[in-house]
Amino acid sequence: MHSTPDKKIIREIVTFIKNQENTLRINHPFLAQQNALGLGLLLLSVCGFITAGWLYFNAIIPAWCCIIIAALSASIAHEIEHDLIHHQYFKSNPAMYHFMMFMVWIIRPNTINPWYRKSIHLNHHKTSGTPQDIEERLVGNGIKSHLLRLLVVCDGLLGLIIRSKQFSREIKGYSFFKILNASLPFATIYYLTIYSFLLFHGLNFIVDNTAIVMTHPAWLITLMQWINIAVVVWVAPNFLRSACLNFITSSMHYYGAGYNLLQQTQVLNHWAFVPFQWFCFNFGNTHTIHHFVPNQPFYIRQTISKQVNVLLKNKGVKFNDLASILAANYYKNSENLVNSPKLST
């Protein structure tokens, strides 16, 4: 898929990105303290998450405020995890590296563990756009049914269960139980909490609006008080964060063939995506840069994105290709589709 002209353009883009990073590092010597910056940002993220929960628990801030602050904090942790997967922090210090991996996981309970995600994310860079890219397919990339896609974006577990047979047929080495095991224990607790919350309050809504009479045992009322708190401080922020991230990432990656780097992603920076970008750290505007230069801290990518995106646009990378989102992420050039791939369902 890499024609000679495309290879030349890709080299130019990669060189430009690295030059922009080098210039930034020369002008700001503190960026050399990469391990300290990564750890500091992670601790800031964790402290923001915990502080939001504490303020809500003590009735200092309302639930909606807690959810927003915690979701924004968790979005930083996600970027740190992404950097850790590419060994941007404490590469030669295993204890600190794994400590950071654990911390980014515990405040994002609806994700698989970062050690397993590392393998499927590195595979994503090798197989982007193909049926073998399990990381993107798990979050909805390439699905032509808009209803199913919405379900997958919002509920990864239910989406996994519904599509498991399809994955078994199409993805080499796929194992439902391997992914399920990689979700233990935090994702299990997350989904038990959210389903219990929805079931309890859903039943109460029905009872309150019908002639049905129902009384709850005292232990259940006590349990639900804690579940209600857990939903606000732990579950709902990550539901918001992951839904926004899943929508953006599944929309910006093209699906259907082994596309080259110019075609693997589009840049999503349309104003309509701004509310979603808030909770995934501007992912749609910057992630394309990561495909060209994976080994780069997220804060560098964010800082140089304005200049780099100008070049990407000039070199033919697509921006805000909204039609592709409605067409299951096909990449369409000026003449025709790159090929005639089989869409995911």
TrEMBL record:
Question: Which residue ranges does the record assign to the Fatty acid desaturase domain?
Answer: 61-319
- What CDD domains does the entry give? Membrane-FADS-like (cd01060)
Segments traversing the membrane = 35-55, 61-77, 89-107, 176-198, 218-240
Q: Does the keyword Transmembrane apply?
A: yes
Q: What GO biological process term is on the record, naming one?
A: lipid metabolic process
InterPro entries assigned to the protein according to its UniProt record, in alphabetical order: FA_desaturase_dom
Q: Which UniProt keywords apply?
A: Membrane, Transmembrane, Transmembrane helix
- The name this protein goes by in its record: Fatty acid desaturase domain-containing protein
Instruction: Specify the taxonomic lineage.
Output: Bacteria, Pseudomonadati, Pseudomonadota, Gammaproteobacteria, Alteromonadales
